[in-house]
Write a structure and sequence with these properties.
- This protein is 54% helix and 11% strand.
- With 485 residues, it is of the alpha/beta class.
- 31% of the residues are buried.
Length: 485
């Protein structure tokens, strides 16, 4: 069959399909293209592929016929939580940033999964929102999922999947958000299914942005493993329209294999751990420092270090380790600033936290540190803003000699309450024990500033009975030691 079709004829068919549908098939993919055309030919009622090609070259297919053809020419290859680093950036950085920006405004979040295929991506986005927003019922969430393949959309709307859709996905997704139907089939739960609206849309042909099809004022737009099917000219055209669909400071995610500053020059790229996501606008960014910024800072640091007299190789190694530690520390500091701060108005919530804290302390005092740590995690999962539980968690980590984890917990507490004195004091002590004098000085100085307006006899809730005077004396003594070193 392939021998009866000349390259000239195939090139003509490719040009027609690209003009009408935007889909691009380079020569290296022609074998697959021919197989797909043969399947489409049979579905359209043609006995021979040559006849089908003649029809494609001379007829003007209507919209229904184009949608039917798309079923055979596009590949529905996806799975849940694909490229997990992107979803980690979403849950840890992007969504919290949007929540913080909109918390006192309209509480409206609009998401578009363009080229959604069989639905794994938009459902993953809905799950990410559920996992990240504790009071999601108070938010107006709109998730639009579009594709040009009607067969893929039909499967997506049913929300029933086999084990193949969960390959490389975290196990908790299937357990928490799916009903086991038996015989290797799983159905998305209604709470997630009802968050997503599916619609047929061709990025190369249909109108957008447009309020009529909800493709406007988008906060987060995912268009992954889609643009690879289009020519460079179409990508340029489509990316500009997608840019217009996204509201200021909104986010745009493509697949890692599609990242290109030349293809998406209108966006700013933002580096997250293991992932890059584009952003529209130049407003305040969430916590991420680009590779270029890191390289620039490192080069400046090395220049200063090289200028020192009598510098040895070990001095350079020590300096580099210090710089790396400082760089990671600054990223953590910025990341934690994204956490929205909500003060609970219900006093019963405070009582519950107090009861949990008491039980955790009792377990720790009895030497049951692992049980105490597990209860901390339960309490924090129920209330991610429970500062006292982060402080307790840090104390337990210290007892278990997990210093890095203890530091992380204390930083989380501080960025939910920048005036959390005991957090600064504890971090100063931890860094002091590590021999990291620079950071120890920073946090001890912060603590001293917070102590200025407190009376010597005051006792802080988390200080285990230490007076303000005693805490001030400890800090002053440690600072004097560091100055003398």
């Amino acid at each position: 069959m392939k021998q009866s079709i000349t390259h000239t004829r195939l090139a003509e068919v490719c040009e027609v399909i690209e003009a009408r549908m935007g889909l691009h098939f380079p020569v290296e993919r022609w074998d697959l293209f021919i197989r797909n055309l043969a399947q489409a030919s049979a579905a359209f009622g043609f006995e021979h592929l040559d006849e089908f090609i003649d029809w494609l070259l001379t007829a003007l297919p209507d919209q229904n016929q184009i949608k039917k053809l798309a079923t055979f020419l596009t590949i529905s290859e996806t799975y849940f939580w694909r490229e997990p680093q992107v979803f980690k950036a979403l849950t840890d950085f992007i969504i919290p940033g949007i929540i913080k920006a909109k918390h006192d405004l309209n509480r409206n979040i609009r998401i578009w999964s363009a080229g959604c295929s069989t639905g794994e991506e938009p459902y993953s986005l809905a799950i990410a929102l559920r996992e990240t927003i504790p009071d999601i019922k108070d938010w107006k969430i709109q998730i639009l999922a579009t594709d040009m393949n009607p067969a893929a959309l039909e499967k997506a709307e049913k929300g029933i999947y086999t084990q193949w859709s969960f390959r490389n996905s975290p196990g908790w997704i299937k357990v928490k958000y799916f009903q086991d139907l038996g015989e290797g089939k799983f159905r998305i739960i209604p709470q997630i299914r009802n968050m997503v609206t599916f619609a047929n849309l061709n990025l190369a042909a249909d109108n957008y942005p447009d309020p009529a099809n909800n493709t406007h004022a988008i906060d987060i737009l995912f268009c992954r493993n889609v643009l690879m099917y289009f020519s460079d000219e179409w990508v340029s055209h489509i990316s500009q329209k997608l840019y217009q669909s996204i509201q200021q400071d909104g986010w745009f995610a493509v697949a890692s294999c599609e990242l290109s500053s030349q293809r998406f020059p209108q966006f700013s790229s933002v580096n997250f751990p293991g992932a890059v996501v584009y952003r529209k606008g130049g407003g305040e960014l969430p916590a991420s420092i680009t590779t270029n910024q890191f390289q620039s800072d490192l080069n400046n640091f090395l220049k200063k270090n090289d200028s020192k007299p009598n510098k040895s190789e070990s001095d350079t190694e020590t300096a580099l380790l210090s710089f790396s530690e400082f760089f990671v520390h600054e990223i953590e500091m910025e990341v934690l600033k994204l956490s929205p701060v909500n003060i609970p108005e219900n006093t019963s919530e405070l009582k519950v936290k107090k009861d949990i804290a008491s039980e955790i302390r009792n377990l720790a005092n009895e030497g049951n540190l692992i049980e105490a740590l597990a209860l901390c995690e339960v309490g924090i999962k129920e209330d991610k803003l429970a500062i006292s539980l982060y402080f307790l968690q840090a104390s337990i980590f210290q007892e278990l000699n997990k210093t890095v984890e203890a530091i992380t917990s204390l930083k989380q507490a501080i960025y939910m309450d920048h005036d959390f004195l005991m957090g600064h004091f504890a971090l100063g002590n931890l860094y002091h024990r590590q021999g990291n004098l620079k950071f120890a000085m920073r946090y001890f100085s912060n603590a001293l500033d917070l102590l200025k307006n407190l009376a010597d006899d005051d006792i802080l809730p988390e200080s285990e009975g230490l007076s303000i005077k005693y805490i001030r004396e400890i800090i002053s003594a440690n600072i004097k030691k560091q100055i003398l070193l």
